[in-house]
Amino acid sequence: MDQSLSLRIVLVKPTAGVDFALQLGSGHNYQITQKQVSGASDLVFELSVKLRRDVSGQYDFSGPFVQGNKGERFIYVGIGTHAGNAGSEWSRRLKVPLRGITVEAIEKIIADDQLVLQTRVPGTGRDGGPNCATVKPFDGWDVEKR
Predict the structure, then answer these.
(1) What is the DSSP letter of 100?
(2) What integer pLDDT is reported at residue 55 of this predicted model?
(3) Of 11, 28, 47, 117, which has the maximum CB count within 10 A?
(4) Residue 56: left if φ>0, alpha if ψ -120 to 50, beta else—which one?
(5) What's the confidence (pLDDT) of residue 1?
(6) CA–CA distance from 81 to each of 10, 26, 84, 121 (Å)?
């Protein structure tokens, strides 16, 4: 049986004045959703992914937000032109990994709809522009209240 898991991605102190959005779909055939322009505060994206449990008891993620192969799944946050702003000086994407999520954390969230799996990732990269590529260092996911 397919179940879903609620996720929250918090971009901490993103570069100001830049468009950010979640990528819905993959390849060149995708849409953007939850578009936000960064300002003085963190940006928050909330989404749901589908879950399937394999015969070994491990969960795998799927759905329109999920990218990558089994064991290497991630969510894309589009930046600048990848967030629908054709005039932006930025054309980047940020990969938020779906790794390090325990079976216990998943089952806790499934059992309580007041909980969400949350990650906090830097919104600004070392170059002062929007953070891009795979989040490094990645501190993982935590169970939080909605």
Answers:
(1) S
(2) 87
(3) 11
(4) alpha
(5) 56
(6) 20, 16, 5, 20
Q: What confidence tens digit (pLDDT) does each residue in 44-77 have?
A: 999 999 999 888 888 999 999 999 999 899 999 9
Residue 100, burial from CB neighbour count under 10 angstroms (0-12, 13-18, 19+): exposed
Structure tokens at 39: 């300002």
Distance, in Å, from the CA atom of 116 to the CA atom of 121, rounded to the nearest integer, reads 16
pLDDT along the chain (146 residues), means of 10: 89 97 92 97 97 89 96 96 96 96 94 96 94 90 96
The two tokens of residue 81 are 């032109």
Backbone angles phi, psi at 104, to 5 degrees: -60, -45
Number of domains in the chain: 1
6-32 in b/e form (b: 16+ CB < 10 A) is bbbbbbeebbeebbbbbbbeeeeebeb
Domain interval for residue 132: 3-145
